[in-house]
Structure formats: C-alpha cells, structure tokens
Q: What sequence folds into this?
C-alpha cells in the first residue's frame, strides 16, 4: 500500500503546511485571482460546504471528512493491489432510491421558485408604474404551487429543465388493483435509468 502511495507523497512534497495545502486547492479554481488570505478563506469554505456534504457541512466537520477520505483512499488502494474485490455498481444494496418525500420536496422547490419569480415580476411592474398603494396579496399567485402539484400527481410528469422539458415521466401512477398480487408487484417496482439498448445482464 505504501508503494502505491509513493508517487502521491512525492508529488505532495512541496506542500509543507495546512496553509500551503489550502492555497494549492484554491489556486486550482476560481480563487486564483484573489490575494492569498482570501484564497485560503475560499478554500476552507469549499471544503466545508462542497466537499463530501453528506458527511458534514459544519465548520467542525473536518475530522470526520478526513477519516472518510482516508477510508475511501484505503479502499481504492486495496482494490487496486487486489486485497479486496472491486465493488459491483449494479448491486442494489449500494443504490439510493428517490422516495416520495424527496421527489415531492424537489418539485415543490421548483414551483416555489417559480412562484417567487412571478410575485417579483408583478411587484416590480406595480412599482415601475407608480401605483400609490401596492397590494402584495394580489401578487401572491398561490395557484402556481397548487396547480403544479396537482398536475404532477395527475400526469406523473415530474420537474422541468431550463427549456421547459419534462425531466421524469411516470413518477406518479394509478395503483394497479386487478388482483392482490398485481397491487403488491406494482408497489415494489423500481425505475432504473438504464438505456433499453444496454447489454448489462446484472441489473436485469
């Protein structure tokens, strides 16, 4: 394992302190134009919020993240030198499902953004035209959210991209009640985004 790491350690010889390391990270992104102090603050912020956000996004999460990074590197090296076998990416125990709650929350977030944009537009128009008393209630078009959620649940079309194209189809479906077994099998169905032309035997 040490031999496998040797090249990385030799390459990292130039970095002798935490400050150097943070500067090295920041220079590889948008922060290369900043002064050194600003670069370091930027790199710290990146590591806190963007790097391994599922472990921690708090300022005191560095230790947990370093353990997790070590665990990842350890597993990678073990697999590369043949101590352990490679993970199977098609194994369902390693997959994560979009459950009803997360699907609804992402859809609601999109609709709420739309709602605030429309509200902003109406209020801006009122202010620009010089209306003496601005009616905020009139600008709140709550039916955007109601209609959006109802439509999504009725059609099963979920979320829209920048061009207004539907992202997912068939998310909400009418439960099959032909027989008891058909209901059970319908409830247990998963939708895996694999191309129909793919020749992968395992997930099938």
A:
């Amino acid at each position: 394992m040490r031999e496998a790491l040797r090249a990385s350690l030799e390459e990292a010889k130039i970095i002798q302190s935490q400050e150097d390391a943070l500067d090295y990270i920041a220079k590889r992104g948008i922060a290369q134009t900043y002064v050194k102090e600003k670069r370091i603050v930027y790199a710290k912020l990146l590591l806190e919020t963007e790097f391994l956000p599922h472990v921690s996004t708090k300022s005191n999460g560095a230790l947990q993240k370093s353990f997790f990074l070590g665990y990842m590197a350890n597993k990678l090296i073990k697999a590369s030198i043949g101590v352990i076998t490679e993970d199977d990416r098609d194994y369902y125990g390693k997959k994560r499902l979009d459950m009803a709650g997360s699907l609804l929350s992402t859809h609601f977030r999109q609709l709420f953004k739309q709602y605030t944009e429309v509200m902003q537009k109406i209020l801006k128009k009122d202010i620009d035209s010089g209306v003496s008393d601005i009616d905020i209630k009139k600008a709140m078009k709550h039916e955007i959210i109601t209609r959006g959620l109802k439509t999504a649940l009725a059609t099963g079309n979920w979320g829209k991209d920048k061009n207004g194209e539907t992202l997912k189809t068939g998310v909400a479906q009418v439960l099959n009640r032909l027989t008891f077994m058909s209901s059970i099998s319908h409830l247990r169905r998963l939708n895996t985004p694999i191309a129909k032309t793919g020749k992968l035997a395992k997930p099938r």
In short: The CA atoms of residues 87 and 135 lie 59 Å apart. Helices lie at 2-11, 18-27, 36-49, 62-80, 100-128, 136-139, 143-155, 180-187. The chain has a mean pLDDT of 89.
